[in-house]
């Protein structure tokens, strides 16, 4: 029998930190991944996948960086010097290191340091949470690194009710895409937009960078980073002046409109043009398209949340949809928070009740600062890094590295491959990939629940995260049955099988070749204020947020400019070659990353495309390759995030230039795009 005849095609799901969560078809010989394709099991993703998934996964799973055995560090931190050890020795050393921290400083001296990672729901947040809750470890507020600002901006208006399904944008006659690089970070929305445009819809794109989808736009508005809130407040005030508000809808479905509009009136269209650096005629054209449209869909991505006024910007954009009555009909709404459509039972899965009452919680953005803070009580003395590459993803990279270099800090690493963060660990545990274990997959950008089984056996001695934490629980003497739950049972604890949306299907029985769509009664698509209703305290859409006023002082959206001592604004959105830092070790990401610079700025510094340049500020310096382009504004630089340390001869990436001290207006989110630098040709 030929090798070709031995190949099998098996169903799977992509778990990358992306809203689309594609269904996959994996070609395997039973041991290795040969090819990854899109499948039609999920009708939303419908067989289309991005290049990085189709091209990079075989290397990611089987390449030279893959962790295959437990490792013990033998050289200095960051030196990548390790020797192979057994699982028994590795677990003993992990137990000893964590126990020593606990015995001397208490359980809160242990910090689980994780984020999303390329994993499904079980590997990303089930047995691990149970273990650390039971241990009494410090808890981590992970949302501020990414997602929490946008999420809270949405729920401050609508509560925990899902927004418009992206498929419905095909019924819109105007689609607005703001701070969302669709073809890189939200691929399948591009297909929906194309369908809408075939039906005569217009497209408006608002973004500091002229992304690929902007080439299709009827109107592209190249906004100054961080100023979106001014634009949308001014638009709201202008709608009021033109008697274009949906007064009946506002009366029936909202509260706080007058407070909101009073705040919005401080900005004229001329103010918006000046502050946002957008021609006034473009703002007028926006209003013309907007007021003539019958059904407007808004997709506001995560880009704007990466600045100080990010929460306000996203809230103001969503509020415009409400004020204009673009809610309550298929094709009219806010495309956001589809994850709220799933009947999740997260507390049952993660068991936060196991944590001692009063256990502290730290902001993930501030982890490095807390590790270096000798006055913190109790101090952090043990860190368990998993599903995360903080050295390459956090702001203030050099402070993170100083924190992880502390000699009195015990570090456990658990990952699929050797990366820049694993190089600081004392013990490394090899984790299985999602291709090597069963898992379940919700999404935050569409409404289909999916399940997958292993398509290949674990590579080397790698173990699923769930099994790693079962073994750690046993090593710590946690004998409760909940620490012995198998993966299929964990799936059934992740979602409520009695909820009508599950259609009588237990999560562990979801078909492998067909996704389970989340719909309302009678299989109707979800529509806010029709069969999905605001889940706020008032039961209405709330323009003024008492919660945000109490917690952060931003009951209403507000613009606050960020002062700077450096002339150029660096923004660092997603890369077409990486998802955050995943695939950052692939050869396609080797060598210096590009820095896009406007031709006027290039002329001033005598820089041409292909020149090596240094960008720097008080926090660090990075070597990049210039690309002269009019796709950025004068004074704005663009370089995609997620590169690894070897890409710059300074041993730093753009994250070294990003402060962790500045926070977003709400949720204390990281302000990646409020980064200001100098430039010089090398």
UniProtKB/TrEMBL annotation:
- Check the record and name the InterPro entries matching this protein: Asp_de-COase-like_dom_sf, MoPterin_dinucl-bd_dom, Mopterin_OxRdtase, Mopterin_OxRdtase_4Fe-4S_dom, Prok_Mopterin_Oxidored
* Region Disordered: start-end pairs: 570-593
| Domain 4Fe-4S Mo/W bis-MGD-type as annotated: residue spans | 7-63
SUPFAM superfamilies hit by this protein: ADC-like (SSF50692), Formate dehydrogenase/DMSO reductase, domains 1-3 (SSF53706)
Top-level taxon of origin: Bacteria
Q: Where is the composition biased (Polar residues)?
A: 571-583
Q: Which UniProt keywords apply?
A: Iron, Iron-sulfur, Metal-binding
PANTHER family noted in UniProt: OXIDOREDUCTASE YYAE-RELATED (PTHR43742:SF6), TRIMETHYLAMINE-N-OXIDE REDUCTASE (PTHR43742)
Record family assignment: Belongs to the prokaryotic molybdopterin-containing oxidoreductase family.
- The protein here is known as Molybdopterin-dependent oxidoreductase
Give the species this sequence originates from: Kiloniella laminariae
The organism's taxonomy opens as: Bacteria, Pseudomonadati, Pseudomonadota, Alphaproteobacteria, Rhodospirillales
